[in-house]
């Protein structure tokens, strides 16, 4: 038979973080081995590879922040650090034999739907291929966002984002400006404060911070979890259950969060005695509206004599002088941006061209929307892991990822049952109905009513990021594919006959 002009696979997975590796494991366990994992870097890990800044750790308990099908009895702490999480993902890769499927240094440059052949044409940095199904697992925390600051290009010192930490640059003895007060910043500040000459924190909006109940997991606990799996499962179940009970306060009754606010204020008061500084650090919005942060060292670090808190965002850079929106000026040798990621405007969306000849970014110009957070109308056989409205404010994203992996597995099963060369395209009516339902429920949530401007909201002020329910509910609605929500696409009969003739000719 004549050699193929190009490589073709059943499934192409983009990304090798939790979503991509999880998809690879589930595909293999389903008996699907004709797939590749396209990774832009030279190793697995996704956001836990890219974020290696000082103090980087997870704010979800380790035993909940891991795959149910790959438990780890050896977690060293309640909240594990980046090195341990990255090592876990490397171990998952080896345990499930995923390395032969992974193509490193293969950043996806474009994806284009071929409506005649019903497959995706994939262009990568290492070559091209085609795939019946594409699973986009690039994640919302993969591409750093740096604000457009006047004069930044002329800054003579060092500039980098927290997710692209320059480990070759020594901050010791330097005047450092930390821009932002998100989850990364509150870990970086106490980690670098003892060694820098001066640290200036530019705080556009203060964050609510609660104590971090972290501790070392004892050897006895780890032994029990390894020898008696039921103890490990019970620990995970307890962690999950507590968080499920908290959901209604975030999604239906935000006023109940007042008690949590009092706990946060008490936590601040114990560490920050200066009333002026405490006033700067006290948010004016309902707790939970923005992501709640956990730290025992952030507030103490801000009270140190070599730290200044500027209660304003960075507006302009004039040489080495940084000017805040309130006019405050400070000199710096280095600027570290902890300003988040492109969450509501995923960069991968600009590279995906669907059945109508438009990109996913163009289709989402008025806001992201996908059926059950996974499939978009006009993009057949294209599934997104951690898609629109699948984010969480209080629990583990791994739970949401696994629910979407269940949906992926049933999606593949439906393709097999229907048989032949086919594709499933989400009906616009189904996508819009799903989105309307989600947005209706979103109206009562703390994210929409709490009085803040957060990264959960897109440029139109619509919350296209968070899931307004429990993880159990999401698992239920993604348990299986409802074919009534999809249009079944088949290769036209004429094309099938033409391809059959070509195949016979090639064999001859």
UniProtKB/TrEMBL annotation:
Single GO MF annotation: flavin adenine dinucleotide binding
Cofactor: FAD
Superkingdom, taxonomy of origin: Bacteria
Assigned keywords, A-Z: FAD, Flavoprotein, Monooxygenase, NADP, Oxidoreductase
InterPro entries: FAD-bind_Monooxygenase_sf (IPR051209), FAD/NAD-bd_sf (IPR036188), Flavin_mOase-like (IPR020946)
Family matches, as Gene3D superfamilies: FAD/NAD(P)-binding domain
Function: Catalyzes a Baeyer-Villiger oxidation reaction, i.e. the insertion of an oxygen atom into a carbon-carbon bond adjacent to a carbonyl, which converts ketones to esters or lactones using NADPH and/or NADH as an electron donor. Thus, can convert bicyclo[3.2.0]hept-2-en-6-one into the oxidative lactone products 2-oxabicyclo[3.3.0]oct-6-en-3-one and 3-oxabicyclo[3.3.0]oct-6-en-2-one. Is also able to catalyze the sulfoxidation of methyl phenyl sulfide (thioanisole).
Annotated family: Belongs to the FAD-binding monooxygenase family.
Name listed for the protein in its UniProt record: Baeyer-Villiger monooxygenase
Source species: Streptomyces rimosus subsp. rimosus (strain ATCC 10970 / DSM 40260 / JCM 4667 / NRRL 2234)
Taxonomic path: Bacteria, Bacillati, Actinomycetota, Actinomycetes, Kitasatosporales
């Amino acid at each position: 038979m004549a050699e193929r002009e190009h490589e073709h696979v059943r499934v192409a997975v983009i990304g090798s973080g939790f979503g991509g590796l999880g998809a690879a494991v589930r595909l293999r366990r389903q008996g699907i081995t004709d797939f590749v994992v396209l990774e832009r870097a030279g190793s697995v890990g996704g956001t836990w590879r890219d974020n290696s800044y000082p103090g980087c750790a997870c704010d979800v308990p380790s035993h909940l922040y891991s795959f149910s099908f790959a438990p780890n009895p050896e977690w060293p702490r309640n909240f594990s650090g980046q090195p341990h999480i990255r090592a876990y993902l490397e171990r998952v890769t080896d345990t499930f034999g995923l390395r032969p499927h992974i193509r490193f240094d293969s950043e996806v440059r474009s994806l284009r739907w071929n409506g005649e052949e019903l497959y995706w044409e994939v262009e990568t940095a290492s070559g091209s291929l085609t795939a019946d199904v594409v699973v986009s697992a690039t994640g919302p925390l993969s591409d750093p966002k740096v604000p457009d600051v006047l004069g930044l290009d002329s800054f003579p010192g060092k500039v980098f984002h927290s997710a692209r930490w320059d480990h070759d640059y020594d901050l010791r003895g330097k005047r450092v400006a930390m821009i932002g007060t998100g989850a990364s910043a509150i870990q970086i500040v106490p980690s670098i404060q003892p060694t820098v000459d001066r640290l200036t924190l530019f705080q556009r909006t203060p964050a609510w911070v609660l104590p971090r109940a972290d501790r070392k997991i004892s050897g006895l606990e780890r032994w029990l979890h390894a020898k008696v799996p039921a103890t490990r499962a019970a620990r995970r179940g307890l962690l999950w259950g507590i968080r499920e009970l908290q959901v209604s306060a975030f999604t239906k009754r935000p006023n109940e969060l007042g008690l949590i606010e009092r706990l946060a204020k008490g936590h601040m008061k114990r560490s920050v005695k200066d009333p002026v500084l405490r006033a700067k650090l006290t948010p004016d919005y309902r707790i939970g509206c923005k992501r709640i942060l956990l730290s025992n060292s952030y507030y103490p670090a801000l009270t140190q004599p070599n730290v200044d808190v500027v209660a304003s965002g960075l507006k302009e850079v004039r040489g080495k002088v940084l000017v805040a929106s309130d006019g405050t000026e400070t000199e710096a040798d280095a600027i570290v941006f902890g300003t988040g990621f492109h969450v509501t405007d995923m960069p991968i969306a600009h590279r995906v061209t669907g059945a109508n000849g438009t990109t996913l970014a163009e289709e989402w110009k008025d806001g992201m929307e996908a059926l059950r957070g996974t499939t978009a109308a006009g993009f057949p056989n294209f599934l997104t892991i951690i898609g629109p409205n699948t984010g969480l404010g209080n629990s583990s994203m791994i739970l949401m990822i696994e629910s979407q992996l269940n949906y992926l597995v049933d999606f593949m099963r439906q393709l097999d049952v229907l048989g032949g060369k086919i594709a499933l395209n989400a009906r616009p009516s189904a996508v819009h109905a799903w989105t309307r339902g989600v947005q209706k429920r979103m109206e009562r949530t703390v994210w929409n009513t709490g009085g803040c401007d957060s990264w959960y909201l897109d440029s139109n002020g619509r919350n296209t990021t968070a899931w307004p329910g429990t993880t159990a509910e999401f698992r239920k609605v993604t348990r299986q594919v409802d074919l009534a929500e999809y249009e079944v696409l088949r290769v036209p009969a004429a094309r099938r006959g033409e391809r059959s003739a070509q195949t016979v000719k090639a064999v001859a």
